[in-house]
What we know:
Blueprint lengths: L1 H31 L2 H9 L15 H26 L5 H4 L15 E14 L8 E17 L2 E16 L5 E18 L2 E19 L4 E19 L1 E3 L2 E16 L2 E2 L8 E2 L2 E20 L2 E19 L2 E5 L2 E5 L7 E12 L4 E12 L2 E13 L1
Antiparallel strand pairs: 1-2, 1-17, 2-3, 3-4, 4-5, 5-6, 6-8, 7-8, 8-11, 9-10, 10-13, 11-12, 12-15, 13-14, 15-16, 16-17
Amino acid sequence: MHCSSRLSQKKGRGLARAGVAFIILILSAVVAAPPSAHAQFAALTPPPAPPSPATSSIDSDSSAGAAVADLGSNFLERLGGRASSGFDDALRSNPGGGGSSEATDTPRYRAWGEAYGISASSGVQGDFVGDRRQTLGGVAGVGARVAPGVNLGISVDQSRTTIDVPLALLQSATLDLTQVGFNASVDEGPWTWAIALVHGFGNINSRRDTGSGIASAGYDAQIDGALTELSYYWSLDQSRIVPKAAFEYVRASTGSLQEFGGRDPLTATGAATERSRILIGAEIGHYWIVDRKIFDLSAYGKFVDNVSQRFSSIVVSLGPQSITVQGIGEGSYGADAGASASLSLSNTVRLYANYDGKFRTATQSHQGTAGVELKW
């Protein structure tokens, strides 16, 4: 038994020595091999896959496109509301409507200026991780009553929006947008038909933290839109109820972009968004006359149906690799609500402040406006 155990131990030690000697022999052969042999061996090893863009790497571009469309809609609806309220507040002073003979002695011209701020946010939509947007802007405009019951106006809106996409590689962007708007209205008794047209253009500058520096890009944006609205003014002494129905169309587009700086800068194609919607609601209001001044309060609510939304895809490329990212929307249904306070100091000067809220399935925004209107 003892002899058998010693033989087994000797056999095991012999196998171990043979294994070690074999490994040393292989390593010596590899080290001693000529460089061409190493090159042939390396050629057999597959190269690492090139980096590809992440789906969320261009969320700031999607957010900027949505911001352009939303700012166009906001301006359109403000222009439509101004037109459908009747020129020179005739609906308050003239229950017969802005086109009746009682309003012929009112001022024919007016000019207005206002400042506004908007806070908006979008939630998660597919691969889009959500954003926060802050806008500051100003509007200046002039208008005229060119015939009894026929009013025209033109205004310019200038705004800057900061966009933050904190959950998508620390992305941010700024949008500088200029919009030119035209509005017109025709009054016939208590009925008012109003239209508004908007054309806008701007620049977007995006920044993305790549972990090895900032990748930045600059590209263009454009917005076109139209709105038509029909309203009926129902007078109740010094109160009013104004049912309204409107149809709105906007088309927003952003140009292609090429990032510079940082690690793995991206390129992306341009994108376009088209949206058609129906808005149905009503305004209620009441005014008081105090010391020959008119103080007016009003509120409104609207149901919104986005009957059509089209989003072109964005192709994001990093070298030979590319992915397709779908645009973002705001949901099919929603609601608008707001309130306004106005103080007419005289027949020629009026101060006002407005709040407008938009509530959608995937987005919401809150806007505050303060303005002054002069008439002569």
